[in-house]
Amino acid sequence: MHPVTVVIGCLTMSGALLSLPSSCLLTMLAVLGIFIVCGAPWKFVHVALHTFKRDVLCLIVILRVKFAMYQNARKRRTIPNLFAKTVAKHPEKPALIHEPTGEVWTFRDLQEQCHAVAHWALAQGWAEGDVVALYMESRLLLVALWLGLAMVGVEAAFINYNLRQKSLQHCVSVSGARALVFGSELTEAIFAVRGSLHCDMLLFCTGEHADKEKICCLKAADLDEVLARSHKHPPSYTFNKTFNDRLFYIYTSGTTGMPKAAVVVHSRYYRIAAFGFHAFGLQRDDVIYNCLPLYHSAGTIMGAGQCLLFGLTVVIRSKFSASRFWDDCVKHNCTVIQYIGEICRYLLAQPIHSSEEHHRVRVAIGNGLRPSVWEEFVGRFRIKRVGEFYGATECNCSLINIDGKVGACGFHSRILPNFYPIRLVRMKEDSRELLRDAQGLCIPCQPGEPGMLVGRINEKDPLRRFDGYADQDSTIQKIAHNVFKTGDSAYVSGDILVMDDYGYMFFRDRCGDTFRWRGENVSTTEVEGVLSGLLGHTDVAVYGVCVPGVEGKACMAAIAHAEGQFDLDDFLSSVQKALAPYARPVFLRLMPAVDTTGTFKFQKMRLQKEAYKLQNSTEKIYFLNSLVGCYEALTDELYDSILEGHVRL
Predict the structure, then answer these.
(1) Cβ pair 278, 64 in contact under 8 A
(2) What is the C-alpha to C-alpha distance for residues 453 and 445, in angstroms, rounded to an integer?
(3) Which residues are registered as beta bridge partners of 263?
């Protein structure tokens, strides 16, 4: 090992014990002196001086989380065990608050609801490893459902409440669920797919029954009544699962095909929540405002996890409301908010309101906050700290922006690069295939060079695990071999990032057939399959296009259509029934034929480059005007208005 690396490693470990700024400064000066003695390049010295404090802070967080995870694993603790310890500390403290109803559950209330769920699960005869699908909008009961099921080893599968028809059917089926619990607000969606679900699947409904006739036809039991009669004391049950066993499934869009059920084990849940708590300076008396959907890991782990593991109060909003956001924060004295990039932009677009001046929020945690929005958001709303992070539910290469670097989603230490073994590696731009050197190993990217983010897999290290998906084939597809060294394995994120000279990482793009819109991952192959089916198996190429001033990429569909009438209204009506709002095409391109390769794969590079600028008189482009609810022809005037940000998407 290089002597400089050894010295820095030793000093970093000792620096972790120093708390006074003066001591830290003295240590950094000592490091500089040793660098010079060892003959380190001046550029390396410069980088070390600028990143030493950041790296030490992160090292402390990593060591703290790793030690806690080691203790939990050794003592066979699980998330239900850790939650019980939290309840014992402050049973009467508010745990969860619901908006807009204002319903409040104390930690004891939440625990009793979990016990009721556990007794219900045992009464159904479900055993450890069985799966129950949960399909509802965010509510307090959703937390009690998955946690109560986990108390007896039953695994929940979180279904995105925006999904309909084939996508919904697929997600329920691939989970292998024995039962499905759905919110009454989604009765129509369940009614549409009931015939394609397993005939033995039990259905349970929760919430006010708006359509009792259809619920009766579905033969769905009233879960609220069942739980009201259920016991509230701890179930007499011997728990066999350990810290590294399965907790639940969260669906994530891969680079191809339908959503995949990512496995979340107890240790992964703890890791994500604990990093958020320690890295971003959260305190146990904080109140978190969580308007993110609970079927996402950000909402149910990073958000609700602070309540279950660290005793914070969490306000759960059923659906995001830009106009009510700051009013809610003031009402509940929130000190921490969660976001995705688009939420910040929506809040900035709101007229100035008095509640902006009276909130107590000091920390914002989330991902996707664009540099162009970051400083304006922080300035207008007086946010002292932004905790930006990067990470998929299943990945082992998560990143955290611990020091508030504007625009960065995290960093990788240039001083101790091997302490957290992640890397950006080169790839072919067209196929996204990883490039390799003469020894067959992946080629690391240099600062400023975009590359694929990968993380070395080590099943014995809780931070390096890759638990994969319910489908083994999908798991295999995300693993590459001989990446860092011969014989190793690494998780391939599917995301393109770029690193600067100081190790800060900046998200660039998603690779493969996936793009992000409205905070959701959109699988192009999934949308292509749905649209092609609606159009009688017509060739359809789906891709994401950039819109100035808007986070992510909007969905655009190129449709092979011969000259003649294309019923836009009928098409939109069918799309609204079949696709989630974020997956619906914002732009349509009707063309005589869609270019394909010799193996009949769609050639999208030209289409993406041309985007929604009309290039050919034989083609037509339409824009989905959300204000009037219809597709309209894209004129030069409308095109200019979109580029100038005058048209609302």
Answers:
(1) yes
(2) 10
(3) 249
